[in-house]
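Researcher: I'm preparing a figure for a lab meeting and need a structural model of a single chain. I don't have an experimental structure, so a prediction will have to do for now. The sequence is pasted below. Please return the structure as tokens so I can convert it later.
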Amino acid sequence: MRNLMLIFTGLLLMACQWQEPAAAFGTVERDLIHVNAQTSGLITVLNAQKGDSIKTGQILLQQDNTEQLLIVAQNEAQLALAKAQLTLLQQGSRQERQEQAKANLARAAAMLDDAKLTQTRQVALFTQKLSSAAALQQADAALAVAQASYDVAEQQLKEVMAGSRQPDIEQALQQVKQLEARLQQVQWQLQQLTVVAERDGTVDDILWRRGERVPAGATLLTLSVDDSAYARLYLPANALANWRLGQQVEVWLEGRDAAVNGTIRFISPNAAFTPHFALHQLERSRLVYLTEVSLPQDLGIHTGTPIRVLLP
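Model: Understood. Here is the structure written out token by token.
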């Protein structure tokens, strides 16, 4: 009889034990941004440390920009020269060049008149047999040279008075546009050597240090984004039918007395292995599904905070 009483008492105590309510467990997580190097180079300045709070636009890292600054200065000088040449073509010839071209034409005209007189005189002398054929040929050649010089001077005066040709102006204009685009490109390359934060967050990890030479595309650091807090938990299979995307659920945060409202944003279509913390003792062998629940962004929740969601 005594043994029966002991067994009965044990069963009664087991029946009165508190049972853990069905719940899904997880942690608070945030999106991670991988900040990569746009170009290879030596790290000269590092303004961030692991765990630092970062604001948008803050300079995180600086690579050596000495060579790139010289390239920018060279392109600026080339662009300034091209613009000056374009301005000269658009304004046309100066008064001094016009006067010089007129003087050259007058000198060529005088030389042509003298060559004509000489040639006429040689013809007369040759007709009277007072001059040789060689002298006449020489006079003819001098007249031809004088005529050619006059034609060249006349054409130069026309070009000077007419100003620059439109094709020359268009060519100079296109060169200016090409150099402007090139300058924008090298300036952009210079900006890529300065790494700035694109969003507010916390430095999660730093993979390179000052004095190291990083290759292009290498991940420099990772940033945990402040405004992306969500609960990552594991939903048991027997509760899957009661959860849907967009559904509002109450999320209990470790250390807080009141639950916060969250919105289910993702439920994995594939079952996962059960993490040791995901279910209470009686349910740890069942299938679970990775689930994400968006949380309010103004709670100041620390990443990694344990959470639980009661199951219906």
